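WARN retry 2 of 3 for item q-0093 after timeout on previous attempt; input resubmitted unchanged.
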Amino acid sequence: MSEQPVIPVDENRLIAERREKLTAWRASGQAFPNDFSRENLAGRLDELYATKTREELEAIPITVKVAGRIMLKRVMGKASFATIQDMSGRIQLFISNDSIGEAEHSAFKHWDSGDIIGCTGTLMKTKTDELTVHCSEIRLLTKSLRPLPEKFHGLTDIEQKYRNRYVDLITNEQTRLTFVARSRMVQSIRNYMTHHGFLEVETPMMHPIPGGAAAKPFKTHHNALDME
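OK item q-0093 returned
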């Protein structure tokens, strides 16, 4: 089966709409709250409770407090689902009029992919056996002004991947795992060298292009490369 063509999206229009939402949010006096503290990571919750049955989770309610970026959102009248992503993985949220109130649910429906939200609730399993947080409180923490790449294709342009690493890290799990592995390798080497008495020294490098706010350009001759 051939791939469906990607319909171009007017990004400027989407950004303008999100800026209007941000302006309204600021006017409400509730923009960018700093009193929400995450207590649980999505990946850790999956490790601890993914194998639990629906009945086990209902028997002993487990209250959690998670936060992350909206990656997927499905609105279905009086109930909605969302998938958020933090640095450890993803977890699904269940939002309904009965659990958070009609006003809060209505506000959630206007939030966008890429927004960072916080949620307090209890763990449950859906009919498809997916670990989910049944939200009793949900809050918008940060408004995303730029839309995320199309969810099925992501960043396909190699140059854009390297120029917009932050977007690639958000949308591409393999890229994140590579960065985590590299960071741990460098940290391990640094710890080994430090343990054996080595000192880490930053050595200035010469470049043919002047740079640095306090740098004073000068010209010299590189003997090995025979260049100025």
